[in-house]
Amino acid sequence: MTSENLNRRWLLDSRPPGEPSPKNFRWSEDPVPKPGDGEVLVRTIYLSLDPYMRGRMREARSFTSPVALGDVMTGGAVGVVDASENPDFEVGDIVEGRSGWQDYAVLPADELRRIDPDTAPISTAIGVLGMPGMTAYFGLLEVGKPGPGETVLVSAASGAVGGLVGQIAKINGCRAVGIAGSDAKCGYIVDELGYDAAINRKTENVAAALEKHCPDGIDVYFDNVGGTILDAALVHINMRARIVICGMISEYNLVEPELARRPTRILLTRRARMQGMLVFDYRDRYPEGLRQMARWIDEGRVKYKEDIVDGLENAPSAFIGLLRGENFGKRLIRVSEDPTVT
Ligand code: NAP
Ligand code: FER
């Protein structure tokens, strides 16, 4: 799938005002770069597609700088070392790093994580055993602080983060209720992941369904979507509830933030805590989180679902589809053949 002597890349060509279009991305074929002293050339195998990439397309700075116009789109990836000018890495090593939307990237060795292909499928390094997994783990346990018998509500509940949050809630003895965008996703989270109830946000009245499925109210709301679903959830929060503001995907493509009146007064009267979380704050504790998630997978207590799209050329349409909710599980691009799969 990759070319022997060219680096195929997706560059940011323009900034979308609302929903991104394929026209915002420019395809480019450039020479394969050479690693300098201490650097490593990595060939991409799996490219992660994540909602935060919509933020990188904006001019505003957030947890990191925006992608400059004409630069390659940023993104985490799993790849194989193709050439190394660093004694710590050999050709053939599997690594995770910020390669971006391209076949090849030169990266400093200290920004690479070595991946053991015998521990788990290597694609998990950008999923359950990577950034989304750590978001679910630390977001729920450290910010949500769920207690046994409590009700945990999760939105985008079949997704890369949400699919894991519900399972970790169950491991902690909670009642887990998920909101998802199709009957197939709702069936999957109850039948496969062990959620106690699911709400289809497209066919059900979310407010009425929350009343029905959270009869004792909500103690932890793990919010991935913001907007009207957050408003509906707030109405049902209990005294001293914790609301984990993980993401607000329903608002990412809005041209202007909706200025509707929001029910934030409920936070006051219920002495609830609504707190933002950024996974990178827990970087120093990733080894603990990764060890625990790997153990749960081995024990069969945590399952994960990948939504793999073949071919780097399909990255823009697959990303636009992710923002529309077309993915079912952690969306990633298979850029080149996985050498660890036989
Ligand atoms: P994901 O859940 O695998 O995919 C996104 C999902 O969002 C879609 O499948 C869709 O699910 C839902 N969605 C899309 N448009 C929506 C809308 N208008 N209203 C409601 N739901 C909508 O993605 P992910 O990687 O796990 O990310 C989930 C959230 O976590 C995102 O908000 C992301 O930005 C955030 N995040 C935050 C951090 C952090 O450090 N704070 C780290 C990672 C991710 P349904 O079809 O089921 O509705
Ligand atoms: C994400 C959404 C938002 C995410 C990070 C952010 C890593 C951070 C935004 C900011 O710092 O403004 O999915 O994932």
Unique ligands: NADP nicotinamide-adenine-dinucleotide phosphate, 3-(4-hydroxy-3-methoxyphenyl)-2-propenoic acid
**What's the overall average pLDDT, rounded?**
95
Computed Rg: 20 Å
Number of strands: 15
**Tell me about the biggest sheet?**
7 strands, mixed
Low-confidence stretches: none
Supply the helix-strand structural class.
Answer: alpha/beta
Compute the number of helices: 9
Oligomer: single chain
Measured as a percent range, the helix fraction is 10-25%
Instruction: Give the SSE string.
Output: EEEHEEEEHEHEHEHEHEHEHEHE
Bin the strand percentage: 25-35%
- Shape estimate: globular
Separation, N- and C-terminal Cα atoms: 17 Å
Can you put this structure into words, describing what you see?
Helix 2 (131-144) crosses helix 3 and helix 2 (131-144) crosses helix 8. It is globular, with a radius of gyration of 20 Å. Strand 11 (218-223), helix 6 (227-234) and strand 12 form a beta-alpha-beta unit. The model has no long low-confidence stretch (mean pLDDT 95). By secondary structure, it is α/β, with parallel strands linked by helices. Strands 3, 4, 5, 6, 7, 14 and 15 form a 7-stranded mixed β-sheet that branches. A 6-stranded parallel β-sheet has the order 10-9-8-11-12-13, with helices on both faces. It has a two-stranded antiparallel ribbon with strand order 1-2. It is built from 9 helices and 15 strands. The chain has helices spanning 52-56, 131-144, 162-171, 183-191, 206-213, 227-234, 265-269, 286-298, 315-323, and strands at 6-12, 25-31, 39-48, 77-84, 94-97, 104-108, 113-114, 151-155, 175-180, 197-200, 218-223, 237-245, 273-276, 306-310, 330-334. The chain binds NADP nicotinamide-adenine-dinucleotide phosphate and 3-(4-hydroxy-3-methoxyphenyl)-2-propenoic acid.
